[in-house]
Amino acid sequence: MPTLYIGNRNYSSWSLRPWLALKWAKVPFDEVVIPLGGPGYGKSQIPEILAVSPSGRVPALELHGTTIWDSLAIAEWAAEQPNAGLRPSDPLARAVCRSAVAEMHSGFPAVRRDLSMNLRRRTRATGLPADTLTDIHRITELWSDLREKYGGSGPWLFGQRSLADAFYAPVVTRFRSYGIDLPEVCASYSQALFGDPDFRAWEAGAEAETWTIESADALFTEPTP
Q1: Is the separation of the CB atoms in 175 and 190 below 8 Å?
Q2: What is the pLDDT averaged over residues 44-54?
């Protein structure tokens, strides 16, 4: 059975993405949580992670003696399994879905910088820099466009759960954590994720964790009134 190595559920956005993809594709797997923080954190030099991932980062999937060490590669592998259903059936929609995933995988650096994933946080970020606001606008514009063109009657970006939803899931949580106001269609999309049973299981695990990362908790520590 595959083994997925992940970081803290509360903070590890990269771990959440392939974890959801595997769950949604109904791929059985074992999971091992390796707490982030401490010596080597931020430098890809945590010894416990280096022991299972050549990049020194999580997630990593061990499969029949081979390690897949990138979140997108793991998610793509999950989508290739029989009856995974994580890609639109229409070739053009599938290409658009792949574009949306790729943009998330490599882009939005300001959102990553200023709105780090922290599922337990509830605050309202103010005075965000222009580049962060630009990222937020692009994301909400993209969600709205995908829902209009490909969502149909379903609640997800492409009507049913897809790799795009798995990759934008951490951003949905970030917007909630930092009190970002969303257009109605994006707020409705967010509620679909929050109600998903697999996401709820991940979130329950995050809430039960006792590990903390001081540097990650230092941003916007004042709770929303």
Answers
A1: yes
A2: 90
Given this model, what pLDDT does residue 155 score? Answer: 96
* Least confident window among 26-40, 93-107, 163-177: 26-40
54 and 152 in a single domain? The answer is no
Q: Are 205 and 159 in contact (CB under 8 A)?
A: no
The answer to whether position 219 is within a domain reads no
Residue span of the structural domain in which 8 resides: 3-83
Residue 40 covered by a domain = yes
Q: Using CA atoms, how far apart are residues 62 and 53, in angstroms rounded to an integer?
A: 9
Let me know if residue 32 belongs to a domain: yes
Q: Would you call the peptide bond into 59 cis, given omega within 30 degrees of 0 as the criterion? A: yes
- What local confidence, expressed as pLDDT, does residue 37 receive? 81
Per the CB < 8 A criterion, the answer to whether 32 and 6 are in contact is yes
Phi, psi (degrees; rounded to nearest 5) at 204: -60, -40
Instruction: Tell me the CATH number at 108.
Output: 1.20.1050.10
Banded model confidence at residue 138, pLDDT cuts 50, 70, 90: very high
What is the distance between the alpha carbons of residues 147 and 156, in angstroms, rounded to a whole number?
A: 7
Checking if the pLDDT of 224 tops 50, the result is no
- Closest to 136 (Cα-Cα) out of 167, 90, 159, 168: 168
130 and 146 both lie in a single domain: yes
Confidence (pTM): 0.93
Same domain (yes/no): 10, 97: no
Residue 213 lies in a domain: no
